[in-house]
């Protein structure tokens, strides 16, 4: 039996490049993820290096074709599976950033924290063995460390989630979600929805905005924490928060709602047409992502590095 690859705690092969460094490079997402962290070269759940071309966008993990089939069978409320070489329209800049920040190494530090490595299935595992393990891992959450004072200063998953969001720490957010935190949680002090907190933490509004109008961003700003929440069931509130959002955050809300949302002088949302500059930024974002992944099918043949 081939040796099982371990994807927990493996050090990334190269430092993660800033998002701006690959925005203008027509690279492929699969290769980007492999280059970013060699743990992504092997399946998160069985360690296989064959056909590792699938991803769960809400769990932010990379999978082989066999384990991806198990994930699909669990339902989209557990795992949203996409092909890294075929479903190119599924990957927004926010999802790309989320995958780059998380991936197999970080995710398994949480989802397999209590796992006895001897019970993890290998590449030759049967479908029944994979199903049993993956169900225990993501449905029963059997290998997630329970909340404790050593892992969190907060006593509940929701408090842990909100604290992680405010600090823009995606790993703490994933841990809270693994503990079944509510992605629609609200801050007790002002009743602000988790998604709005995530947007504000990632890209604070300009305090010097003229007339309450936020300046147009020079380039798209990704929101991986907000995207993690949305992919795991968070709903964008119909009422905007009591504080202003940056223009990039407004664009994110517009995209998710499928309509235009303006910010009035007092920070409360009002409907109006999108500004042309904002639309152009969104179009540029989509164009760059499409170029980056347009020939992704060839990446399936790229070599897997040896350890």
TrEMBL record:
<keyword id="KW-0863">Zinc-finger</keyword>
<keyword id="KW-0479">Metal-binding</keyword>
<dbReference type="InterPro" id="IPR038508">
    <property type="entry name" value="ArfGAP_dom_sf"/>
</dbReference>
<keyword id="KW-0862">Zinc</keyword>
<keyword id="KW-0040">ANK repeat</keyword>
<dbReference type="InterPro" id="IPR045258">
    <property type="entry name" value="ACAP1/2/3-like"/>
</dbReference>
<comment type="function">
    <text>GTPase-activating protein for the ADP ribosylation factor family.</text>
</comment>
<dbReference type="GO" id="GO:0005768">
    <property type="term" value="C:endosome"/>
</dbReference>
<dbReference type="InterPro" id="IPR001164">
    <property type="entry name" value="ArfGAP_dom"/>
</dbReference>
<dbReference type="GO" id="GO:0006891">
    <property type="term" value="P:intra-Golgi vesicle-mediated transport"/>
</dbReference>
<dbReference type="GO" id="GO:0005802">
    <property type="term" value="C:trans-Golgi network"/>
</dbReference>
<dbReference type="GO" id="GO:0005096">
    <property type="term" value="F:GTPase activator activity"/>
</dbReference>
<feature type="domain" description="Arf-GAP">
    <location>
        <begin position="27"/>
        <end position="151"/>
    </location>
</feature>
<dbReference type="GO" id="GO:0008270">
    <property type="term" value="F:zinc ion binding"/>
</dbReference>
<keyword id="KW-0343">GTPase activation</keyword>
<feature type="region of interest" description="Disordered">
    <location>
        <begin position="263"/>
        <end position="307"/>
    </location>
</feature>
<keyword id="KW-0963">Cytoplasm</keyword>
<keyword id="KW-0677">Repeat</keyword>
<feature type="region of interest" description="Disordered">
    <location>
        <begin position="1"/>
        <end position="23"/>
    </location>
</feature>
<dbReference type="Pfam" id="PF01412">
    <property type="entry name" value="ArfGap"/>
</dbReference>
<dbReference type="InterPro" id="IPR037278">
    <property type="entry name" value="ARFGAP/RecO"/>
</dbReference>
<protein>
    <recommendedName>
        <fullName>ADP-ribosylation factor GTPase-activating protein</fullName>
    </recommendedName>
</protein>
